[in-house]
Amino acid sequence: MSTTDYPQVGRGWAFPPRWERADVDGTGGTGGTGGTGTTGSVDVVTNDGAEHVGEALVLLLRTMIGSRVMRPELGAGVDRYVFEPRTSEACHRLADDVRRALVLGEPRVIVDAVEAVPAGEADDRVDVTIEFRIDRHRRPTSLVVPFYLAGAS
């Protein structure tokens, strides 16, 4: 979905930031030399609409509280749960921290529900499901973000 579907969310850099060569002469941006030709310009990759908001949500959740100098309250603080046991209490606190971060840090979304549950057979992962809406038409959308509690195996 693009800016025409969600004009109020805007357009921005894709995350992680990356660049691609523009295809000016129809040769894939290599200038026909087979190498790294210079005929095309290099542009930053951007996105818009629902994809833009989804990347912003993941970026917000992966940000440590206090790591942004001008906005020290921004972030979810999920790094505190890395070595926590996979208990219902830890899942509840994680879901509460995620909800707080989204409500305070991302004004383009309306958070309907946040649920953190242990991920099946994976002993070291909790899946956080976020149900949210991003426009005045109230179309529901979901995002599942896995968090590894005991480090990657």
Total number of strands: 7
Query: Percent helix among the residues?
Result: 10-25%
- Proportion of residues in extended strands: 25-35%
What's the Cα radius of gyration?
19 Å
* Average pLDDT figure: 80
Q: Shape, please?
A: globular
N-to-C SSE string, H for helix and E for strand: EEEEHHEEE
Measured distance between first and last alpha carbons: 35 Å
Derived from helix and strand composition plus strand pairing, the structural class reads alpha+beta
Strand arrangement in the largest pleated sheet: 5-6-7
| Biggest sheet architecture | 3 strands, antiparallel
Number of helices: 2
What does this entry look like structurally?
It is a single chain. By secondary structure, the protein is an alpha+beta fold. It is built from 2 helices and 7 strands. The protein has helices at 49-62, 88-105, and strands spanning 11-13, 19-21, 42-44, 46-48, 110-118, 125-133, 140-148. The protein is globular and about 55 Å long.
Topology summary:
Blueprint: E1 11-13, E2 19-21, E3 42-44, E4 46-48, H1 49-62, H2 88-105, E5 110-118, E6 125-133, E7 140-148
Antiparallel strand pairs: 1-4, 2-3, 5-6, 6-7
Sum up the structure in keywords.
21% helix, two-stranded antiparallel ribbon, 153 residues, 3-stranded antiparallel beta sheet, 25% strand, globular, alpha+beta, 7 strands
Give a short synopsis of this structure.
The chain is built from two helices and seven strands; from the N terminus they run ββββααβββ. The chain is α+β, with helices and mostly antiparallel strands.
